[in-house]
Amino acid sequence: MGVMDANNYGNVHGGVIMRAVDEAAAVAAVRHSDGPAVTVFMDSMEFREPVKQGDLLTTYAQVNWTGTTSMEVGVRVTAQRLDVDGEIHVATAYLVFVAIDADGRPRPVPQSVPETDEDRRRAGEARIRRETRLHRREAIRELRESPST
Length: 149
Ligand SMILES: CC(C)(COP(=O)(O)OP(=O)(O)OC[C@H]1O[C@@H](n2cnc3c(N)ncnc32)[C@H](O)[C@@H]1OP(=O)(O)O)[C@@H](O)C(=O)NCCC(=O)NCCS
Hints:
This protein is α+β, with helices and mostly antiparallel strands. It has a single domain, classed as Thiol Ester Dehydrase, Chain A (Roll). 33% of the residues lie in helices and 30% in strands. The chain has a four-stranded antiparallel sheet with strand order 1-4-3-2. The longest helix has 29 residues, at 117-145. The termini are far apart. Bound molecules: coenzyme A (COA). The site of coenzyme A (COA) has 15 residues, from strand 1, strand 4 and helix 2.
């Protein structure tokens, strides 16, 4: 992380980390779906530790779950202080990508096949987050459409 990534106190802006997260997730989604994919939702971005100017930032992205045209991608962000051994876990985020065709319409994605217990845990948790997202979207839509509110 360079001087342009940080504020006057040497802390890296959250938006810089979010951009790195979005880019890493996009690579995972595009690779998995073998074509273009766009970010449709980003949630649960948790900043656990500050990132400092001079840190080496690393992103790890994995497709956790696939629907018909959408995918949930989990991203883990670590920082390495150049004078300290080991990586610090600084953030975790979950994003939903939709694979699109040449006209920008959703297209089907290959189903992800969990291979390890860790993969199965991530897929199970992703299903819960998907239900929560869709439920929240539906509840807000209903509230907006109800005449008395
Ligand atoms: C992504 C996009 C093509 C989806 O179009 P749409 O007409 O809403 O498509 P659908 O309603 O058929 O939904 C497609 C999938 O996305 C999921 N989805 C849509 N909105 C969602 C939301 N807010 N949260 C979670 N999932 C969502 C649907 O559940 C569906 O998943 P499934 O096929 O796996 O069941 C359209 O919303 C779009 O172009 N958005 C802009 C994307 C963008 O520009 N991103 C930033 C730059 S990359």
